[in-house]
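Reopening this one. Same input as before:
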Amino acid sequence: MPAVPWKNHAGITRELCIEPPGSDLNTFIWRVSVAEVAADSAFSTFDGIDRTIVLLNGSGLHLQLPGGLLHPLTSANQPFTFAGELQVQATVQGGATRDFNLMVRRCAATGSIAVYSCPQQLLLAANASLLFVARGEALLTNAEGRMQRLRAGDRVCFGEGQARPQLQCGTDAVVLAVHIDKK
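Same output, byte for byte:
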């Protein structure tokens, strides 16, 4: 995954999946990426976009929101959702972080992130659009019994109408599942 600059050029991100394929920052319905935050900076603003951020690793961030609200994003794998048009200032806490980001165009869809700490076995919901292994290993098994092993950093994007597999996580694994419901 090539690194690309943030919209405001204050950091870098790696796109994991975008819908529809080939869309850009002005036309996506939803987008998932992993960002590296190495220094204090303002987040890019995205009008009409709902954003959810999850700390993957690092000491975390303090997110300064309008109205003096402060949200500590210091626990890994705890999703935090906010409106993309808000002016958000991130303060790095003790070193660089890596963050998982979901952006959803509010007029077109809603989205959420489920965090599965494992070992666990489950059938993915029909609206699961992406799986990302944050830590450890996981195994996907489709309806025909075909298996796919995933390791930390791997992701799988699911298309509309595609059958969702069964997920089995290994010991100490953490898997993020992005759920999208189009309007």
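So the earlier flakiness isn't reproducible anymore. For the record, The chain has two domains: 4-107, 110-182.
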